[in-house]
């Protein structure tokens, strides 16, 4: 058992103290929950109590966060969670590098940056590859970063339009009862994409660009028969494509275009017996040049720390079910 110790961090000034603590000490609570330590701020001192490894790691994370404040970066809860995650993964040395580049500024002028090592790999892959697959659980920033990279490419004149699509599998039979044409029926399921667009460039600008067909947000069925040149194309929720849909989508790629395909293979909503096109693509396309696969894990989740724990819990439950089924099958074979 690791010895229990106390270490102390000295705040350099009141600005640093308030920045590290967060509103109502919310950042300190995140550090306590994420690292299993106790933090107590008094005067210009922050006392860290816990087992030796956890306390020392917490001190390193606080120092990394303090360096961001020193460079005039305002911390958010996401930054704190990212620092905790990278600290646990042993990649904290790269934490400061993540903030050295601004991908784009959002509608309120705030810098959009990658938040962890996995996201940095994802962004670098988008830049270098013609087609990038981002595969992993919810909360890893796949959709938001893809939209940010698309808008950045549009602003730099690298593409002439942005096309974002997703299959409508989740809607199921309820689609027929919703008013409007297919696009209007599916629009509610595209809400996360609209939210990302509105955050990055504002609702009015998004609508203007959509009216001019510079931005197109549409269900996957609208992609059939097209060749998409000079475009940044994003397929979201790709785990819900069939093999035929995935092949159809990927072969839409035209000259001077990029594709990003995002999905979570743990949340497949296809009818029983249907195979996910995303899973098949991993196997079929893994060795093709200029196509990259970036795999995120629960450690890359940049939402509240409990989201990562939820992902892990469900993955463990699924694995227990698989193990039980295998055991039953093996027992049945032996009895036979």
Automatic annotation (TrEMBL):
Keywords: ATP-binding, Cytoplasm, Nucleotide-binding. One of its GO terms (molecular function) is ATP binding. Its main location: cytoplasm. It is found in: Cytoplasm. It comes from the Bacteria. Transmembrane segments: none annotated. Residues 112-315 form the PhoH-like protein domain. One of its GO terms (cellular component) is cytosol. Belongs to the PhoH family. This is PhoH-like protein. It comes from Leuconostoc fallax.
């Amino acid at each position: 058992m690791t010895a229990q110790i106390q270490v102390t961090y000295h705040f350099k000034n009141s600005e640093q103290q308030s920045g590290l603590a967060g509103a109502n000490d919310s950042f300190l609570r995140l550090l306590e929950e994420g690292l299993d330590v106790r933090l107590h701020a008094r005067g210009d001192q922050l006392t860290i109590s816990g087992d030796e490894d956890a306390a020392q790691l917490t001190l390193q994370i606080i120092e990394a966060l303090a360096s961001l404040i020193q460079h005039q970066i305002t911390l958010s809860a996401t930054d704190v969670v990212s620092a905790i995650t990278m600290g646990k993964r042993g990649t904290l040395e790269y934490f400061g590098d993540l903030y050295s580049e601004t991908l784009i500024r959002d509608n309120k002028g705030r810098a959009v940056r990658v938040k962890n090592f996995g996201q940095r790999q994802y962004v670098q892959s988008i830049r270098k590859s013609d087609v990038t697959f981002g595969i992993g659980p919810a909360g890893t920033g796949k959709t938001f970063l893809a939209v940010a990279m698309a808008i950045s490419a549009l602003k730099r004149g690298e593409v002439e339009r942005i096309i974002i699509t997703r299959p409508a599998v989740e809607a199921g039979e309820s689609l027929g009862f919703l008013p409007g044409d297919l696009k209007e029926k599916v629009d509610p399921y595209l809400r996360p994409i609209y939210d990302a667009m509105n955050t990055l460039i504002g609702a009015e600008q998004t609508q203007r660009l959509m009216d001019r067909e510079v931005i197109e947000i549409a269900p996957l069925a609208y992609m059939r028969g097209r060749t998409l040149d000079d475009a940044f194309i994003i397929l979201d929720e790709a785990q819900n494509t069939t093999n035929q849909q995935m092949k159809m989508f990927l072969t839409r790629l035209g000259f001077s275009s990029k594709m990003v395909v995002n999905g979570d293979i743990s949340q497949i909503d296809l009818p029983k017996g249907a195979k996910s096109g995303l899973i098949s693509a991993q196997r079929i396309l893994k060795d093709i040049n200029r196509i990259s696969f970036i795999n995120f894990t629960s450690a890359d989740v940049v939402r509240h720390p409990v989201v990562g724990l939820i992902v892990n819990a469900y993955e463990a439950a699924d694995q227990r079910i698989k193990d039980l089924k295998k055991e039953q099958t093996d027992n049945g074979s032996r009895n036979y």
